[in-house]
Amino acid sequence: MSRLRDFYKDTVVSQLRDQFGYKSVMEVPKLEKITLNMGVGEAIGDKKVIQHAVDDMTKISGQRPVVNNARLSVAGFKVREGWPIGCKVTLRRERMYDFLDRLVSIAIPRIRDFRGLKSHSFDGRGNYSMGIQEQIIFPEIDYDQIDSIRGMDITFTTSAKTDEEARALLTAFNLPLKK
What we know:
Blueprint: H1 3-20, E1 31-39, H2 48-61, E2 66-69, E3 84-91, H3 93-107, E4 128-132, E5 152-158, H4 163-172
Antiparallel strand pairs: 1-3, 1-5, 2-3, 4-5
Helix pairs in contact: 1-4
């Protein structure tokens, strides 16, 4: 088991039970999945760009991403239906906790001019989304080997019923949210 999963079972569960007054351990919110999404609009002009994005996301997540294709043709964006325009990966269980551990302890401290993650990015149902502008904050990415700097969206899906419960859960995992 990963270090963060043990930390959740040993520390976070009891901390959240005391804070919110849950009667059962099963009521305590938990992290269900982490979804990484990378939109690659420049793949329209060059098909190799999507392959570089898939390779980067494979290194970051430790799992092969799914390539997303355009659902509609949009003349203004010069996109045809069925063309690859992005990639995504969903992490669960051990890989999810390993990714969260690397994100909190290694990647986020490497963000330039970092002042904390926005605390208003909750969706009202206990899920949190954040965006990063550069994939090079992850140590798996070699700066000399990348073709361009790309950003990605990271979504934390929790079993929390409210944003306040999800905020307490993510703060217990040491995710640096602004007050």
